Design the sequence.
């Protein structure tokens, strides 16, 4: 009994010592063992240790950042992808990278895969290399069954290959083979990467999800959620083993230079890194020609072919005023033809005509000599073949008379 008590006491003391040492930072466990540490800036850099290598490309970070890699006992196993050995955790946890970093395992099982956390998902990459855009946890694994794969478009394995590939233009048409029993909800992440540093705007949006693209013309399922509701591009409720759709720019908009697009697709339980492709928009993408024409590509530029009555002004159609032979009225473009009509006139058929209004004068007089008429105060006087009228009486000299009393000479 005393021996047992002694052993217990020794164990207790050792535990107390270890706890105290942990508090003081002198005792460590494999869960928080540091494997590597490095300061990496906008020019890029490498972090290596514990059989892992993280290669951060130039442009992935905007400021100098200290990155730490630690061993962790967290288990990332999902479905039949079984983790092999301890995982690693990268700090600062959750730090996003503008360009994907290559994460490589020096040694891996016979059927290797890497599991890593990204966009709220556990993602599997077949082989010993994964491309990550977020600092989080990762682990080596033995590969299992891939339940989602991209049939089209043709993807390449690395961002570097995609940068030299011919771009897909305006819309990317996808066909995915899905095990609908295993993947009742298909999660899709399309992430645009600006390797040329050409854009000030955030291509993937500045919200929660990856909103560079939106889904159109979906067959084989129904859109359950778009990019605004979760950290992915879309969630699709599958109804078939084949899902097709078009991915068209959303927050990315019209592009000035091509971008590289990373594709992750799978289930909420386990998604798969599918690969990369290059994407661009043509000179006519999104151009409506003011709603009065259609955009056609001529060389490297877009030009509007406009409806009758409109003329092309770059990528817009401007209304041509219709004023030939007209001096007034509508110009058919929301304005009026010059010079327009004056007082006492109205516009008929594009011409100014009298509007039929009359005017009355009082106290004025008109005098005519040699066959003219003079009027004053309502009377008219005529000489030399003229007539005079006053108060309803007309007198004539050397001429005929009318009205009232008449005298002829």
Sequence:
């Amino acid at each position: 009994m005393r021996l047992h008590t002694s052993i217990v006491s020794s164990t207790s003391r050792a535990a107390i010592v270890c706890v105290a040492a942990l508090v003081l930072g002198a005792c460590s466990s494999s869960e928080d063992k540091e494997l590597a540490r490095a300061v990496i800036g906008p020019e890029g850099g490498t972090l290596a240790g514990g059989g892992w290598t993280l290669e951060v490309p130039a442009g992935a970070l905007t400021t100098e950042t200290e990155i730490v890699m630690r061993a962790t006992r967290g288990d990332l196993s999902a479905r039949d992808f079984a983790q092999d050995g301890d995982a690693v955790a990268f700090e600062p946890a959750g730090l996003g990278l503008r360009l994907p970093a290559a994460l490589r395992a020096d040694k891996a099982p016979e059927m290797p895969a890497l599991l890593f956390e990204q966009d709220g998902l556990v993602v599997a990459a077949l082989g010993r290399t994964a491309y990550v855009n977020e600092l989080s946890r990762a682990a080596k694994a033995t590969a299992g069954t891939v339940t989602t794969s991209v049939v089209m478009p043709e993807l390449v394995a690395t961002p570097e290959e995609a940068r030299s590939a011919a771009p897909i233009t305006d819309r990317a048409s996808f066909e995915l083979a899905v095990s609908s029993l295993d993947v009742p909800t298909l999660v899709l992440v399309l992430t645009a990467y600006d390797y040329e540093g050409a854009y000030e705007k955030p291509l993937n949006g500045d919200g929660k999800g990856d909103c560079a693209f939106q889904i159109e013309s979906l067959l084989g399922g129904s859109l359950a959620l778009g990019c605004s509701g979760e950290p992915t591009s879309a969630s699709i409720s599958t109804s078939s083993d084949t899902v097709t759709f078009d991915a068209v720019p959303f927050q990315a908009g019209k592009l000035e230079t091509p971008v590289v697009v990373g594709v992750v697709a799978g289930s909420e339980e386990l998604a798969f890194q599918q690969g990369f492709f290059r994407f661009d928009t043509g000179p006519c993408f999104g151009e409506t020609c003011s709603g009065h024409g259609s955009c056609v590509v001529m060389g490297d530029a877009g030009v509007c072919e406009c409806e009758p009555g409109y003329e092309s002004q770059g990528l817009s159609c401007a209304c041509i005023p219709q004023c030939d032979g007209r001096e007034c009225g509508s110009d058919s473009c929301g304005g009026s033809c010059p010079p327009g009509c004056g007082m006492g006139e109205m516009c008929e058929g594009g011409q100014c005509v009298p509007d039929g209004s009359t005017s009355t004068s009082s106290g004025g007089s008109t005098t005519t000599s040699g066959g003219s008429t003079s009027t004053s105060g309502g009377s008219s006087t005529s000489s030399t073949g003229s007539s005079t009228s006053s108060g309803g009486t007309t007198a004539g000299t050397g001429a005929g008379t009318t009205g009232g009393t008449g005298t002829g000479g």
